[in-house]
Structures are given as structure tokens and as C-alpha cells.
């Protein structure tokens, strides 16, 4: 690990000033960034420890909940408003990592954690995400766990966050703050497809902080569920996951949102495919037709093609669970 400065600001203004220093990076729980520093994948000149900033609250409004970026994953998962009114968020958080890590990890850090692709995390392999323009060792390497949606010849690394998948299904908005002021961006616009710039992963600008995540508490959000399939029952990232929120009225789908994890280079959602389900019964054939549309653009390798049938099964189950919640 290379030497670095540690800055511990007491206020948001101080933090934003420190983040404007060359090579400065925010650190919250450190469960991802420090890990990557130890692997020499990340080498910030300065760490700005943001944990003293007043971003630890969960505020429940009339029809939204706003979660501070420094709320611990475990605290958000146990919050009564989240559990009752947006259960997919709680289920997604509880499906990630371990109890100890969830206590240290924060919501903002979870959204900005970097991929678990083994070629990204090992500095001696080609990886355009780690070293722009260097190629993608996964394309011809071990790629059974890699993405089937949103890939490019330059990157097929899976986005690792469970939380982001649940938030995408619930139409969450990310609150951002920089020295230029505050802005809000829908989570669906926050992540960037790799294309030929896989090192540019989000819309976060240099020196900008995530301050909060806002979730509308809609009727479908209350029925939302998160289903995660993985190699072992705990302490494992998703092989495929589904956040589903469906409202069935008079025997047909009135509203539906389905987001996918473990299969895309970004948390994945296809609103045009969802629209096909609206007005139809939530039956096996209509869900299959939805899956056909959703997965039409999937690109597989011999090693990761198994993810498509896995995902179809997960979508059926997640929708059934949401519909009966
Ligand atoms: C063994 C293990 C298993 C795990 N399993 C899962 C899993 O199954 N599912 C899952 O979703 N996650 C999993 N995680 C990831 C874990 O949840 C994340 O590491 C954690 O949420 C990151 O939060 P943090 O506060 O520690 O982030 P940090 O490590 O402090 O930061 C991560 C990144 O976010 C940036 N950052 C942090 N906060 C902000 C902010 N407010 N504004 C701007 N930038 C910010 C940092 O600069 C850094 O780039 C696992 C982690 C480990 C170590």
C-alpha cells in the first residue's frame, strides 16, 4: 500500500474542500476502498474520512424516505420504515456481506463500491477498468460469474451492489453535493455502461459526494421483494438477483418494476419490457414473454450462459413473492 494523507473534516464544507485536493478520495466504512488499496488497485494520495459528517439520519416523510449516505447498511436494513414500506431494500442489504461488514459499510459506499471481477482486483492482468485501454482479460478468461447484459469488448465485469438493484426497482434518487452546489440524479441515470470507457462507472463528478438516497414510498414499494441467488447462502455476491415490485388489481398487472443484479455491468432495468406486463394477468406465459424481451440483448459466453435460465426462474419467483405480499 502506498503512503497517503488522512484528512478528517468536521463539516460538509471542509470535506468538499479536502476532496478538491489532487488525488483525494472519500472514505466511509473503508470496507471496499481500503481493501482495494491493499491490493494496489487503488492508490489515492489522500483519504478524506467523511464519517463525522451529519449524513447518518433516516428521515421519513409523507411519501418518501431519505437515507443519509453514512447510514450503516445494518441500520437501514433494520429501520422499521424501510422494513415495512420498502422491504426489498432491507432484504437486499441483509443478503450482502456479513453482520460485521454491514455494521461498518455505508449506503453511499455500497453504491460506489467497485466490481469484484478477479481481473480488476489483480493488478497483473489486463483490465480497462483499472488501466484504461489495456483490454479485458475476462473476455477470454474465467468468466462464469461475469455479466450477460450491458457488456462491451472492453468490460464484462458485474456490478456488485445488491442495494442498488433494490433502489433501481423503487425509482430512488441520489442526492449529490459538490463545491458547485447540490444536485439530484435518478439512480437509473447514475451508473454508466462500460462501452469503451469502463473506468468511468458513475455520474459522480470529481470532488462530489453522495449525501443521501431518496426513495418514494409507493404502493408497489410496499410489496417489493429482493431475491438473491448465489453460490452459498451467506457472505457471497449475487450470481443473479431480482428486485420485484408488482401491484395486481382486478386480476391484471397495474404497476410493475423489476431490476436485476449479478448479471449486468450496471444494475439492470428495462422499462419497455415492463410495459408489456401491464394490463396482463401475472401468469407464467406473460412473465416468460417479459423475460424474452428483457433478455433479448443478452450476450453470453459458454461459461456464463447458465445465468439466463437462472434469471428467468428468479424473476418468476420474485414476482410471485411480490404479488402475494
Ligand atoms: C467480504 C465482503 C462481502 C461483501 N458482500 C457484499 C454483497 O453480497 N452485496 C453487496 O452489495 N455488497 C457486498 N459487500 C460490499 C460492502 O457492502 C461494501 O464494501 C460497502 O457497502 C462499502 O461501503 P463503505 O462505507 O465501506 O465504502 P468505502 O470502502 O469507504 O468506499 C467505497 C467507495 O465509495 C466511495 N464513497 C464512499 N462514500 C461516499 C460518499 N458518501 N460519496 C461519494 N463517494 C463515496 C469511496 O470513495 C470509495 O470509492 C461486501 C464486502 C465485503 C468486504
Spans of at least 5 consecutive residues whose pLDDT stays below 50 are none
CATH class of the largest domain: Alpha Beta
* Rg (CA only): 19 Å
Count structural domains.
Answer: 2
Label the CATH architecture of the largest domain. Answer: 2-Layer Sandwich
Helical content band: 25-40%
Largest sheet: 5 strands, antiparallel
What is the number of helices?
13
% residues in beta strands? 15-25%
Shape: globular
Q: Average the pLDDT over all residues and give the rounded result.
A: 97
Number of strands: 12
| Structure classification | alpha+beta
Ligands in the model, by name, code or SMILES, are: flavin-adenine dinucleotide
H/E order of the elements? Answer: EHEHEEEHHHHHHHEEEHEEEEHHH
Biggest sheet, spatial arrangement of strands: 4-5-8-6-7
Amino-to-carboxy terminus distance: 48 Å
CATH topology of the largest domain: Uridine Diphospho-n-acetylenolpyruvylglucosamine Reductase, domain 3
